[in-house]
Amino acid sequence: MAFALGPRAKSQGYRFTAFDSIGSTNTEALERARGGERGPLWLVTDLQTAGRGRRQRAWVSPRGNLAATVLETMDVQPSVAATLGFAAGLALEAALQAVSLESVMRSGGSAVSYRLKWPNDVLAGGEKLSGILLEAETIGGGLAVAVGMGTNIVASPEGTPHPATSLSTLGVNASAGDLFMALSDSWAELRGIWDNGRGFADIRRMWLERAAGIGETVSIQSNDTIIEGTFETIDDTGCMIVVDHNGRRRPIAAGDVYFGSAKSSGAA
Hints:
alpha+beta; seven-stranded mixed sheet
């Protein structure tokens, strides 16, 4: 698989290293950060053999899917860096829109609509297409942040807690290399808007415009607790705000989100 940076990413000084296969691009990024690498650097492959998602869940990524991590070092608090995940979601959505449009122009077919699921997924037709894993370590006086982004290009896993799909299933004719080039450019743009957290208000507004489930009933499972209510918004720290059945606005910092009531969604 041939990978290349987009023109915006190149002009902003991003570099990349491509692998025929690798265990985990996030693990490689953090190992390089411990060894002195400060980025901005992309690590990319179309075969990841030991990928992981949130809470150390396995992320299945067979040959042909995209696994990419961007490593950056910044002078921000970890709580601020956590909001970078929303910029990553926007970057993925923009890149997916770009390759989908190119596919329609080249081969015909219908346009695909993508939505962002709190906190770290991209959906198509209500099914998971992409996931994001953000990890950070304090190294050498700065915060090394690895933002991993995986997308199902040719295949999607089965038997997952949430149904999954792939670009191939959606009829989008694009390769991992096509998506990476678009993603490197959209990331450079959205990373600039985020601006070490100073631009999160703009990122938040853009994210909410593309969010799945706003105004709808959701169930959030966090450890052994299930919270059910209406998804109202996200706040200025990135917490999900849910209005429960007693009218209380409850901030959710982490958890698995299911659309619908706990009983209907299977969260209970």
